[in-house]
Amino acid sequence: MGSESIVIGISLRGTFNHSTKTDQSSTMKFIKPKLHAILDYAVVAMLLASPSIFPFTQAVAVFTYVLAGIHFTLTISTDFPGGLIKIIPLEVHALIELFVSILLLASVFILSDVSSTDRYYYATFSCAVFLTWVFTDYKVSTSKSI
Question: Percent of the chain at pLDDT above 90?
Fold first, then answer.
């Protein structure tokens, strides 16, 4: 890895920082906050539709609806284009999405009372959330970003 290793950390002030040690960081971060907001609303719609499309177990269907509500609340509360209330800093939104992606992937392997459809869906979904986190430019000024 060498000079291209990824540095992930939380500063003492609580702000979130994930970047590379080289200038490749800016080329990897092609999802700007406005596009991220659009993707977040699309994710909410997908989560709401998924229990009708996929044969989830009852518990996973209910969990998916709850997750849609939580994600909608996070999206409208984030201080970025598309956020309505703007009380959650974008850096905190980033941390939440990172932790959710890890927890969802872990749950796929930990929970025993789920179907293979449930597992594949949430394994794929958690990877998509993680990749969105990796490729989103959370450092762009949210007031003028496109």
Answer: 71
**CA 86 → CA 73, 90, 117, distances in Å?**
11, 9, 35
Instruction: Name the amino acid, one letter, at 112.
Output: S
Name the burial class of residue 146, with classes exposed (0-12), middle (13-18) and buried (19+) by CB atoms within 10 angstroms of its CB: exposed
User: Which spans in the chain are helix H?
Assistant: 24-28, 33-53, 58-77, 90-110, 116-135
Q: How far apart are CA 82 and CA 58, in angstroms?
A: 32
Q: Which residue has the higher pLDDT, 24 or 98?
A: 98
- State the pairing for strand pair 6-10/16-20: antiparallel
User: What's the rounded Cα separation, in Å, for the pair 123 and 67?
Assistant: 15
Average model confidence (pLDDT) for the chain?
85
**Domain locations along the chain:** 33-135
Residue for token digits 């960081």? 25
Task: Please list, residue by residue across 73-94, b when 16 or more beta carbons sit within 10 angstroms of its beta carbon and e when fewer do.
Answer: ebbbebbbbbbeeeebbbbbbb
